[in-house]
């Protein structure tokens, strides 16, 4: 939706206990036309998340009552919306842990609020484009099937051995990209650019964790994948023979 429209854009929940950061980010998001709700604690955030539908969550990891990690898990139990972490933690283990429990991306403090808003806008735009493209191009298509996998392009429902498997936004976008580009090798940088789309150096951890999460959902033996394989020294390939 274009700026200046009388209709508000997507709804974002910002969870941040530091007042200065919370007010600054909220101001930048409001300037871009987003609807913004704010929370200072994890409990406030979960109460809002239970009552309203949000398109994207921005979660501080270090909250005064519960951790952002716990809040992410609680939100993921009821929503597939985009989740972005704000974190002071630079250690790989902490970042990977956040991605493994369902976060789509993260931003390390201190950050430029303009860049944060650009990141948020990019995530929402890609999710919207993927949905619109699928509805327009594939609405009359039969489900895609290969081996134990079946993808219904009309509602983006994945079945593995006939059982519906829930996926988060980035997992779905990643799988759709591989299905549309079978047997091609893509580097980590190429995947990051196509799926996350942020103009910075590719984040190897983000891609690797999402590939690992996706393998756990589609592979019978994730440690010895049949579909989403590693091409050593180059990247990843979705094998369809």
Description:
This protein is α/β, with parallel strands linked by helices and 241 residues long. It has two domains: 11-132, Rossmann fold (3-Layer(aba) Sandwich); 139-238, Arc Repressor Mutant, subunit A. 43% of the residues lie in helices and 20% in strands. The protein is built from eight helices and twelve strands. It has helices at 19-31, 42-51, 68-76, 92-100, 113-138, 169-180, 188-196, 204-218; strands spanning 11-15, 35-39, 56-60, 82-87, 105-108, 144-146, 149-152, 157-160, 163-165, 185-186, 228-231, 235-238. The strands form three sheets. The protein has a five-stranded parallel β-sheet with strand order 2-1-3-4-5, sandwiched between helices. Helix 4 (92-100) links the parallel strand 4 (82-87) and strand 5 (105-108). Helix 2 (42-51) packs parallel to helix 3. The longest helix has 26 residues, at 113-138. The radius of gyration is 18 Å and the shape is globular. The protein starts with 10 loop residues before the first strand and ends with a strand. InterPro entries: CheY-like_superfamily, OmpR/PhoB-type_DNA-bd, Sig_transdc_resp-reg_C-effctor, Sig_transdc_resp-reg_receiver, WalR-like, WH-like_DNA-bd_sf. It is found in: Cytoplasm. Residues 11-124 form the Response regulatory domain.
Key traits:
single chain; 241 residues; globular; WH-like_DNA-bd_sf; Sig_transdc_resp-reg_C-effctor; 2 domains; alpha/beta; 8 helices; transcription regulation; Rossmann fold
Element layout with pairings:
Layout: E1 11-15, H1 19-31, E2 35-39, H2 42-51, E3 56-60, H3 68-76, E4 82-87, H4 92-100, E5 105-108, H5 113-138, E6 144-146, E7 149-152, E8 157-160, E9 163-165, H6 169-180, E10 185-186, H7 188-196, H8 204-218, E11 228-231, E12 235-238
Parallel strand pairs: 1-2, 1-3, 3-4, 4-5
Antiparallel strand pairs: 6-7, 7-8, 8-9, 10-12, 11-12
Helix pairs in contact: 1-5, 2-3, 4-8, 6-7, 6-8, 7-8
